[in-house]
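Predict the 3D structure for this chain.
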Amino acid sequence: MADKTILIVDDEAPIRDMLRIALEMADYACLEAADAQQAHSLIVDQKPDLILLDWMLPSTSGIELARRLKRDDFTAAIPIIMLTAKGEEDNKVQGLEVGADDYITKPFSPRELVARLKAVLRRSEPTNLNEPIQVDGLRLNPISHRVTINETPVQIGPTEYRLLEFFLTHQERVYSRSQLLDHVWGGNVYVEERTVDVHIRRLRKALALDGHDRLVQTVRGAGYRFSNKTVENL
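Done. Predicted structure below.
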């Protein structure tokens, strides 16, 4: 992992120092920023592999920076882990809905941080599959890491991409939230099951063109499945 660069965005120098030491011990290179403006400049210039982003920043908040990054095609694919003292569920969901890939509430152990960071990086890496997968005009190309619907490009985040890829390679079977967490997020990741619902909504929104969101089906009381057949038991 020595070739991976992590950007630490926090206005408190002692916290940045603690994070940098933990990450350097795990063989990551680190960049540091004390506010959103400095962070954005580093992101554009250095293109880090992942961003550790504090919620509470001076001037522009971390949540607003995350929203801005996810709207920009140049930075949308960079994974973001939110770091914050805000532990309420609504804050977690808000962080996930603007595009964060994970959410860690302070205080946390360096060991937990590194484990979750590795999991997010692993999820965001391209898959080993080479052949494009296509269903009813929806096409996923693992080599270019792009998704199209009837040849129209689809804007999709890294976690939604992994979720779609899993669904496309495991069609017509119902998966519970916990099973999706294990297969898509990884078995050692500390993520709440409600996170799955957030990313399912984002995936459906991305696939809304020509009604392709219908392919991601809710099976009441059981979970989700990917199917191009008529929904029978919503």
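The two ends are 43 Å apart (CA to CA).
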